[in-house]
Amino acid sequence: MKKKLLVLQTDFGLVDGAVAAMHGVAYMVAQDLTINNLTHDIPPYDINAASYRLWQTINYWPTGTVFVSVVDPGVGSSRQSIAVKTKSGHYVVTPDNGTLTHVKKFIGIESTRIIDEATNRLPHSEESHTFHGRDVYVYNGAMIANDSNYFDSLAVGDDVNEVIKLEVLDPVFDGEVIHGVIDILDIRFGSLWTNIPSSLLKEADINTGDTILVTIHHHDMKQYQNQMLFGHSFADVKIGETVGYVNSLIRLGIAINQQSFSDTYKIGTGNEWKISIKKV
Asked: Which residues form the S-adenosyl-l-methionine hydroxide adenosyltransferase C-terminal domain (predicted)?
């Protein structure tokens, strides 16, 4: 029998009862659900990080899995609540606030449904307007996970092109230098994950064992510049040395072996953090 899989992501943390309440609501819908946590440590209000982590994860779950993502600084406002089916056969329930940006760009959305926050919600929760993670999103996610026909019963949404998206920049190779951005961090270890795919490294004739010049700007100010090995993994250099590598999403990563690159050099993430790569 196929498992009913529900995966939760929020910026709530685990310091209080919010996540446990969401689990409880899901089990009230169907006690045979299998509930898993993607993460509850998205930085508060960071919609871009929520979008990226969904894309990072979705394709490694069986088709039919339902993801609930709640990073919702506009909770209680006029922003829409939606459920989507992706072209990979997964479902996502989330505010329509940009959380689906990376899924839309790199996986694709097949269809959308509108969640009516007045009626498609946990019974007797109508007076609560600030915990839609519990009252709206996980409730509807659990309903879909329990029976995918529930998705079809929701009101048909706008054209998938109308789903709100954040700005995602594409890397550029000018014939000599690759220009990209630092998308996100490998949080626990402080490595930089860029938007530069391995295919662009190959186009620039950057191969394992080459030396690359890495330059990082924040807005127009240079924050870092140095040469490093482009290797297979961290162990290709001594502890404390820098290395470029292809990460688990098949994109360029920048790291210090057994140290945090982001902490050491005070590097952040987002479109204002530009990175350029050149073969030496």
From this structure: 181-274
The Cα–Cα gap between 216 and 224 comes to 5
Q: What is the phi/psi pair of residue 172, to 5°?
A: -135, 135
| Residue listed under structure tokens 């960071």 | 46
Site of tokens 């685990």: 14
Q: Domain ranges for the chain, please list them.
A: 5-162, 172-279
Q: Give the pLDDT of residue 129.
A: 85
95-106 mean pLDDT = 97
pLDDT score, position 161:
83
Comparing CA positions, the residue from 168, 169, 144 lying closest to residue 154 is 144
Instruction: Out of 3.40.50.10790, 3.30.300.90, 3.40.50.20, 3.30.530.20, select the CATH number for domain 5-162.
Output: 3.40.50.10790
d(CA 273, CA 10): 25
CATH topology of domain 172-279: Elongation Factor Tu (Ef-tu); domain 3 (2.40.30)
Helix ranges (DSSP H) in the chain:
18-29, 47-58, 101-106, 132, 138-146, 149-153, 198-203, 261-265
In the predicted structure, residue 92 carries a pLDDT above the cut 90 = yes
Mean pLDDT of 130-134: 89
The mean per-residue pLDDT over the stretch 63-73 comes to 97
Backbone φ and ψ for 140, nearest 5 degrees, come out as -70, -35
Q: Give the global pTM.
A: 0.94
